[in-house]
Specification:
This protein has 6 helices and 2 strands. Strands 1-2 form a two-stranded antiparallel ribbon.
């Protein structure tokens, strides 16, 4: 009975934290500045904070739910939602968020302060590789614009790279502060569970 109560409490904590992160992702997507084919949003900041806070498994679940909600029609993406969003040049970056979280979320396994920075910048590379590749395909195969990859880099990477690097660093700094609070919550959770077992 005690174990069941402990597991339920842990699940509630996880679900609450994941729901908050999903809301953060949606809000970050809506805070946008339209520039070129891809709007500048605070999604990058949200993606890295969520991935670092939740870890690989929970972050992947949140981003998967986010993508599903968008594709079924809920306006959670930066410019709306719906299945037609897969034809948007920016959709590859959304897929990249999910793939990058699998790397960024590994941070808790390392006990080095610089791990979050290294993993986050690897994640940023993954996001851009996915996003730019997808954009190239959409421009050329779907829209028939006959654009080379240099053009894709010019419109999909260069205007945003400085902002993205800043967002990664900011996310890591914010996470360092959040980590203290989260660890305190986890310790309190362990104490409560131990009290129940006494």
């Amino acid at each position: 009975m005690v174990k069941k109560m402990s597991k339920n409490r842990s699940k509630i904590y996880d679900l609450t934290l994941m729901a908050i992160c999903l809301a953060l992702m949606i809000v970050g997507a809506k805070l946008a500045i339209p520039i070129g084919p891809i709007p500048v949003t605070f999604q990058t900041l949200a993606v890295f904070i969520i991935s670092l806070v939740l870890g690989t498994k929970r972050a992947a679940i949140v981003f998967t739910i986010y993508i599903i909600l968008g594709l079924i029609g809920l306006p959670v993406f930066s410019t709306g939602g719906g299945i037609q969003y897969i034809y948007m040049p920016s959709f590859g970056f959304v897929v990249g968020f999910l793939l990058a979280s699998l790397v960024i979320g590994l941070e808790p396994r390392f006990n080095k302060f610089y791990a979050k920075y290294i993993l986050s910048f690897i994640g940023l590379i993954i996001i851009n590789v996915c996003g730019l590749s997808y954009m190239f395909v959409v421009f050329n195969l779907y829209k028939g614009l006959n654009k080379d990859f240099i053009y894709v880099i010019q419109v999909g990477l260069l205007p945003f790279i400085t902002k993205d690097i800043f967002m990664v660093i900011l996310a890591c700094i914010i996470y360092s502060r959040l980590k203290i609070v989260l660890h305190r919550e986890e310790k309190e959770e362990i104490i409560l569970i131990n009290d129940e077992r006494v």
